[in-house]
Design brief:
By secondary structure, the chain is mostly helical. Helix 1 packs parallel to helix 4 and helix 4 packs antiparallel against helix 5. Strands 2-1-3 form a 3-stranded mixed beta sheet. It is elongated. It has one domain. It starts with 13 loop residues before the first strand and ends in a 7-residue tail after the last helix.
């Protein structure tokens, strides 16, 4: 969808929540990835989720998208496109219910703490390979854990290709 360059946006209709998760802990997808991590923790006898950061939950930061003011912003920035889309939907329904029966819906965008969220198969491959090495006696649990952490840290250090 393209927006008119001079169209005015109302960023107050969208709230973004970023972050959350565990401070210093490795992000882990659900499903089979979590199962592999639990098995690895049991096999190694260590907490594979702890990277030394203390593991305390960090609150989600809530912000508005005040930089999104015009249609041109929406054409150039992903988050402003969300604002423009929400504004369009709210305006449509406001017009459809002229009698004032329509109440604007709250729109909250939950932005993942990292671009690679949901990369469970990569996590499974990395952890599974190291578990196999430990089971075969080719690596110590400590060496395998260090390898897991260093391989997954590369994802944490990589800038999102989507932004």
């Amino acid at each position: 969808m393209r927006f008119r360059k001079g169209a005015r946006l109302d960023p107050s209709q969208v709230v973004v929540r970023r972050g959350g998760g565990m401070g210093g802990a490795l992000p882990v997808g659900g499903g089979l990835g979590l199962l592999v991590a639990v098995v690895a923790a049991l096999v190694f006898g260590v907490n594979v989720f702890d990277t030394g950061g203390g593991g305390t939950a960090t609150p989600q930061a809530e912000e508005t998208l005040s930089q999104c003011q015009t249609g041109q912003d929406a054409n150039q920035q992903r988050e402003c496109r969300i604002v423009g889309t929400v504004n369009s939907i709210q305006a449509y329904w406001q017009d459809a219910f002229r009698s004032g029966e329509y109440q604007e819906a709250d729109t909250v965008v939950f932005d993942a703490p990292a671009w690679y969220s949901g990369s469970g198969s990569t996590f499974e491959r990395v952890v599974g390979a190291q578990v196999g090495l430990v089971q075969q006696g080719l690596a110590s649990p400590e060496a395998a854990l260090e390898s897991i952490q260093s391989q997954l840290q590369a994802y944490a250090d990589t800038k999102s290709p989507l932004l």
